[in-house]
Write a structure and sequence with these properties.
The chain is an all-alpha fold and about 150 residues long. It has four helices and no strands. The relative contact order is 0.13. This is MARVEL domain-containing protein.
Length: about 150
């Protein structure tokens, strides 16, 4: 058996994917926590805060599911990564327009929101790189023949 079990092959690519997914999970949870604290401090429910929480929650859930080995074998999983990239970039546009031009001179809350906008951008870039990598692996993976499974097609 060893490290090269047929079902759970430990390779450099799988280890690298797991590290990337953990980074995506940490980034999504950080954004979820920071925006969640801001969201709970407001009296009204604004759509942008709900959108931020839903996007971060979907990303965190996706990163957790992708840590399971059999989820990366689902066809066209890279399309969901690309959808998450678009969601993060829209979120960057929403909060970037609000907080990047603001002057944070001594205002801790504004500075925290400006820093979180860059976390949102880092999330978007990580999902774009993930979509490109997963798409590359999907289209250029080793495929075994249909009848015996021994030949690489």
């Amino acid at each position: 058996m060893g490290l090269r079990d047929r079902r759970f092959e430990l390779s450099i690519i799988n280890i690298f994917q797991s590290i990337c997914r953990i980074i995506q999970l940490v980034l999504a949870l950080a954004v979820c926590g920071i925006y969640g604290m801001e969201f709970s401090g407001h009296d009204s429910w604004k759509g942008r805060w709900i959108y931020a929480e839903v996007t971060a929650g979907l990303s965190a859930l996706t990163a957790i599911l992708y840590l399971l080995p059999f989820f990366t074998r689902i066809p066209f999983v890279f399309l969901w990564d690309f959808i998450l990239f678009i969601l993060w970039i829209v979120l960057f546009g929403i909060f970037g327009k609000l907080y990047i031009p603001e002057d944070a001179a001594g205002n801790y809350r504004v500075q925290k929101m400006k820093n979180t906008v860059w976390l949102v951008l880092a999330n978007g870039i990580s999902w774009l790189l993930s979509a490109i990598g997963m798409g590359f692996l999907w289209f250029y993976r080793k495929r075994n023949s249909m009848f015996t499974g021994r030949a690489i097609v």
